[in-house]
Amino acid sequence: MSEKDWRRGDFPVLREHPTRWADVDAYGHVNNVVHYALFDTAVNAWLIEESGVDVRTLPAMGLVVETSCRYFAELGFPGVVTSGLRLARLGTSSVAYELALFDGPAGDDGPPAAAGRFVHVYVDRDTRRPVPPPDPVRAALARLER
């Protein structure tokens, strides 16, 4: 299925984000850097909520090693953007997520305004060597796989 065909129902996690006046650039639409901030917020807020721990306090941390975004339609202010999050791949030390940004609240339907990929590689806080995701993160990811 093409990313343009994704719908909210394809994602087990949906989160609404109100747009802000500061999100809009000189061209009158939500700036591309905001799309990446929404992806980052969707992943990390979900991890904190679902794992029940502040991931910043774990012995291993997820470093963002890859991001991408394909833009299909403009987002604006005022408005609500709904992010969709799902697990694309769970590796030995890495986690790849697929994300989409939809214009409007979670109950709306329609194609995504943007589709993205976000990859964490977990490393030991001290040595910075790759390690498996911490147990609370793994448990949360197991629930995302369903």
Description of the structure:
This protein has helices spanning 32-51, 135-145; strands at 13-18, 60-71, 80-90, 94-103, 114-124. It is an alpha+beta fold and 146 residues long. It has one domain (3-145): Hotdog Thioesterase (Thiol Ester Dehydrase, Chain A). A five-stranded antiparallel β-sheet has the order 1-3-4-5-2. It is globular and about 45 Å long.
Topology:
Blueprint (H helix, E strand, L loop, with lengths): L12 E6 L13 H20 L8 E12 L8 E11 L3 E10 L10 E11 L10 H11 L1
Antiparallel strand pairs: 1-3, 2-5, 3-4, 4-5
In short:
The protein is α+β, with helices and mostly antiparallel strands.
Mean pLDDT across all residues, rounded?
94
CATH topology-level name: Thiol Ester Dehydrase, Chain A
Count every beta strand, where a strand is a DSSP E run of 2 or more residues: 5
Shape: globular
In DSSP terms, counting alpha (H) and pi (I) runs of 4 or more, how many helices? 2
CATH architecture level-2 label: Roll
- The Cα radius of gyration reads 16 Å
- Residue share in β-strands: 25-35%
CATH fourth-tier homologous superfamily? Hotdog Thioesterase
Task: Spell out the key features of this protein.
146 residues; alpha+beta; Thiol Ester Dehydrase, Chain A; 2 helices; 5 strands; 34% strand; globular
